[in-house]
Amino acid sequence: MEDHEILGRTIGTGLRREGMAVDVVLDGNDALDRLVVTRYDVVVLDRDLPGVSGDEVCRRLAERRSESRVLMLTAAGTVRDRVHGLRLGADDYLPKPFDFAELVARIQALGRRTAAPRPATLESGDVTLDPQRRAASRGGRPLLLSPKEFAVLECLLAAAGAVVPAETLLERVWDEAANPFTTTVKTTVGRLRVKLGEPPVIVTVREGGYRIGGP
Fold this sequence. Notes:
It is a single chain. By secondary structure, this protein is of the alpha/beta class. The protein is about 45% helix and about 15% strand. It is built from 8 helices and 9 strands. It has a 4-stranded antiparallel β-sheet, with helices on one face. A 3-stranded parallel β-sheet has the order 1-2-3. It has a two-stranded antiparallel ribbon with strand order 8-9. Helix 2 runs parallel beside helix 3 and helix 6 (about 145-160) packs across helix 8. It is elongated.
């Protein structure tokens, strides 16, 4: 397995453990095809991609005025290289090798710039979630949530009472490998309900999805 493939799959696995929905492509042509049909909050782009280079992928994203933020990775870490990447349209730059915790922090920072401004802490009734600290509680009681449960709760709280379709949760919390006909969203919401306790705070909307609060 080539180095870029090992790196790509390792990053994907690590980011999923952080509760992020991740798609991994290993070729510049495949990356361009995927970016046409899917809008990503953040694109982690290796400059040394085979096929179409990472530089070219970044340039085409900039031409399309893509709303996706781009974090470029490269083995070349000189100031000149960083300036070149930023001029192509990248939003941030991280030389290899890098610390994984720094990669996560940079992705999270770019993701906040992509999303509409929202409070640092999300709340509904006595349910509170802090995305930065990866902490959630109800009535002051800490909630021990899996990464997927945390991400689902974050999506529902961010919607501020609006209905979030199951398809949206599947897209935002899982990734391309998720079966659209799976019951994984229903199962995860069920586990989340149990951990949140009584009275119920997640409402199932018939043929719609889920929302926080209200009868």
